[in-house]
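Duplicate of earlier report; Universal stress protein UspA input re-posted below.
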Amino acid sequence: MSNPRIAVAYLATPGGDDAVAVGEQIARTLGAEIDLCMVLPRDRSALATTPGGILQREAESWLAAAAAGVPSDLKVTTHLSFDESSTAGLIAAAEAAGAEALVVGGAGGGIAGSLSLGSVVNDLVHASPIPVVIAPRGARLKRDERIREVTCAVGTRPGAKLLLDAALRLCRDTGTPLRLVSLVAVDDADDLELAQQHAQHALDQAKAFLPEDIPVTSRVATGAGVEDAVNKLGWHDGDVIMVGSSRLAQPRRLFLGSTAAKMLRVLQVPMIVVPKDEGADND
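Output:
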C-alpha cells in the first residue's frame, strides 16, 4: 500500500516557507510523502531562450531549493505546471498527486492576523474538492515536528457529522489527542444549553470510536464573539484546528463560512478546512 501524500502550494516567499513547514508537520504525523507544487501562467511555458523560459528555470531552482530544505526523514517530490489559473492549476496538481490535502501559506492580503488570505488562497478555500490546510504566518520559524492535538470545531449545522468523522479518522490513524470545541456567544442562553448537549453527544461518539489510549476532551467556549471565544481556548505549539466547509458550498467543494473566517483573524495554528462531503463514502 502506497504512503499518503500531502501537496504543498509553494512560492519562494515567507508564506511559501510557512506552507512547507506545516506540510512537513502533517506529513510526518501521517507518515506521508510531500508534493511541492508550483504553478506558472500558461503563457510563460515557452522555450528557455524567452523570458518565460528564464522564469521556468528560476521556478525549478526555487522548488529544488525548497525540496533540499525538507528534513531527510520525509520524502519529497517537486511539480512545476502551467495553467491560466493558479487556483485551478494547484487543485489539478494536488489531485494528480493523489494528495490527502493541500497546504497553503496564509500570509497575504485580505484578513488581518496570523492567517490572512491572499487572492489565490481565498480562491482555494472556496473551490477545492480536498481539504485545504492554511498555514499561519511564522510557521516556518517554529517548524513543529508533529501534530500535538487536533481541535475540532463541532456544531449542529449540516455537514457537522462529516467534519467530526474526518477528525476521528485522523486521530485514530495517527494516535493524536482530540479536543472538541463549541463556540457560543455569552448572551445566548439557549444556544449555550444546546451547545453543551451537542458537545456531550460528540464526546460520547468520539470516545466510542477512538481507542481508549487516545485522549478526548470537550469544551464549550463562550465569548462576546467568535474571536473572543477562540482566544479563550488554550493553544500550544503543534496544535491544529479542523473546521467544516460552509453550508453554502457545493458538494465536495469548500466555502469558508463566516465563523471560520473570524477564527482566522486570531488563530496562531494551522486550520484544516474540510469539504462538506469529505469522507462521506469512507468508513
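Strands lie at 5-9, 33-40, 76-82, 101-105, 132-135, 149-153, 178-185, 216-223, 239-244, 271-274.

Merging into the original ticket.
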